[in-house]
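Example 3.
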Amino acid sequence: MTGTTGVVGALGRVNSLVLVTLGLLGLVASLGVRDLASAGVALGACLAFGLLLLPRGTGPAARFLAVVVAVASVAWSTWLLGGHDPTVAAVAGMRIAVLALPGVALAPLVDPSGLADQLGQRLRLPARFVVGVAAALQRFERLGEVWEQASRARRSRGVGPGRGPVGRSRHAASVTFAVLAATLRDATAMSVAMDARGFAAAHARTWAEPAPWTRTDTAVLALGAVAAALPYAVLVVR
Amino acid sequence: MASREVRARLRGLRWRPIGRATPALDDLDLTIGAGERIGLVGPSGAGKSTVLHALAGVLGEALPGELSGTVHVDGAVGLVLQDPGAAVVAGRIGRDVAFGPENAGLPRDEIWRRTRHALDRVGLRYPLERPTSALSGGELHRLALAGALARAPGLLLLDEPTAMLDPEAAAEVRAAVVGAIDGTDTALVVVDHHVGPWLEHLDRVVVLGPGGRIMHEVSPGALHDGAAAGPRDELTRAGVWLPGVPPPAPLDVPASLVVPDAAGPEVAVDGLVVDLTTRGLRGRTSTRALAGVDARLPAGRLTAVTGPSGAGKSALVAALAGHLRPAAGGVRGAPSRDARSRELARACGWVPQHPEHGLLALRVRDEVELTGRRLGVPVDVEAVLGLLRLDHLVDAHPFRLSGGEQRRLALAAALAHRPGLVLLDEPTVGQDRRTWAAVAGWATAAARHGATVAASTHDADLVALADHRVRLGRDPLGSDRATSPGGVVTA
C-alpha cells in the first residue's frame, strides 16, 4: 500500500487520530445497517479490516468478550420484544457488533500523547481540553490498581462479595463508588501538579513533538471510509 | 541573608479550604531570599503543604477555597508532590518532563534541550522513550523533580519528597535535589517529617504551629543532635522527628482491645512464588513479585518484613492476608485466596499501605464497629477511639480526617475485632511521632497478648521493636534470616 511496508499490521503504524476516526466510522457504518445484507457486508468488512490490518497480539483478547456479551444481550432482547423474529434479532445484534468492534479493537493502540499532538496541532482543538484528555487516558491503568485495593480492603473487613448475584453486584457497586471517589481525589492532586508546571497560565502552548501524517495514515483512513460506506452502498444497490 | 534579593513573599496570608470552618493558614508572613534553602517543619495538620501550595499559586485555582493576603513570587516555581505518581502526565519520561517547557511556549529544540538537561541533573539516564510505568518509586520522585527543574524554577518546593521511600532511595532523591540546585540561585523550601538528613543543606528552618502560624525561625544548627534544648523539645512534643531524639515509647494498648479469642497461628511460608498481573488498555503485564520465599511467622511475636523497594514486601503481606494466589509453593496458617470474606476477616486483620483504601463507612464510629458487627464480635468503640485520640471525631466522615488521623482510624478499623493474625503494610510511612507510637503500640501489644503480627517496613525504629525478622532481597538494615530475593520478569 505504501510501497515500502506491507499491508499486514498497518494499524500498528498509523497515528492515533486515524485510530480514533476509524472507531467513529464504526458508528457511521452501524447506522447503515438496516437488513441482513447490509449487516453481513458491514460486519464482513469490519472483520476483514481487523484480521488483515490489526497487528498480532494487540491488547487483551478478553476485551472482545465485552462485544460478544453486548451483541448477545441486544439480539436476545430484540428477539424477545420484537415478535420473536430471528432476522430482526440478528440484524440488531450485528449492528451492535459493527458499532463496537472497531473501537474495542483499536483502543489498545492509541497513544495518549500522540493523540493529543494530533488533536492540538492538526485539528487545533483548545490545548487545555486536549492535554486534559491525554492526561486522563494516560492514568486509565491506575483504575485497575485502585479497584484491586478497594476490593481487598472490603474482603479483609468481612464485607466482601457474597456467593449470590445480589451480593456480588452490591459489592461491585460499592467498589465502583470507592474507585470514583479515589479518582476524584487523584484528579485534584493531578490538577495541582499540572498547574504547578505552568498549565494554568499556558496561553501560547507549544508541542514537544510534531503530529506526523504519513501515506499509510491516508491510505488506511480512505480504506476505513470505504468500508464504512459499504452498508449504505448495499442499501442503494438493492 | 538580609542582603539577599527577595525571591518570594507571603504577606498576611489567610486560607480557608472549602467545607472547613476554620482557616488552615492564618495571617502568615514569610519571605524567601534568592538561593535561600528553607526547611518547613511542624506537627501533622499545621498546614505545611498548604504553604507550598500557596507559593506554587494553586490555592483558589486547582484547590477551591477562600484566600486573602498576598503571594508574590519572582520567576517560575517548581513543585514536587508527596505522591509523584499523581503528577505523571505522559507515558514516556521525555514527554513527561517536556510538559513544563511546552506550557511555557518554548520552541521545540529548547524544550528538548531543557528536558535532557533536567533528566541529566537528577541522574535519570534512561532513553527519553522509557515508559513512565517502568520507573520505581524513587525514580518517579526524580522524574517529578526533573519535571520541576525543566521549568528553570527560581523557587523549588518539595512536599515530603522522601516519605514513601526506603533509606537508599531517599538518599538518592536528596542527592539529586542538592546536586540540581547547587551553585544556582534557585531557592528551596522542603517539607519533610524527617528533617534531619536535610539540615546540613539548609540555611533556615521555619517551624509552623497549629492553625498555620509561624512559631519559630531557627538556624539548622539549633535542631542538630547535641544542640541546646528549647525548640528541639518543643518540636519533639509536637510530634516532629529530629535527629538524635529516640523514638517515642509505643502506646500502651490494654489487653482487652487486642487479645485474640484463640492464640495466633504459626505461619509457615514455603517456596512461595507470586506473580502480579496488571490489566490495562494495552493488555496484561505479569510481574514476578515473590520468587520462592521461605519464612516463618511465630505466634506471639512481631515479625518485621524488610527489604529494598521492589523486593516484594507488600506482596508477601498481601499473600499472607489471603489476597494473592500463589503461582507455586504455599502458605500454612494464614487464610487462602479462596476463603470467604467473613472467614478471612475473622482469621486475619490487614492494614493496607494507603489508609484511604481501607475506609468504608460514613462515620468514624461506624468504621471502627463495622467488622466486629459483621462477625458478631463486640468492639469497645469508646475505648479504641479514646486511646487513639480520635474521640472528638466519632461522628466525623473518615475522609475529613488528617493523614495521621486516617492512619490511626484505618488501624482501628482493621484490627478492632482482635484477629489472631495481624498484618500491617508499611504502617509508619510519613507519620509523625504520635501516630508512630499508636501504630507501634498496637502491633507490640497484639503480639504480647498472643497474636501473630507481621509488618512490612523500612522504618529502622519499628524494626528495632520487632522480635523476629524476615528479609527479602538485599537489605541495609541487616537481619538474622535471609530468603530468596524477589526477581522481576515482564511477560
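Residues 10-112+212-237 of chain A form one domain. Chain A touches chain B through 64 residues (CB under 8 Å).
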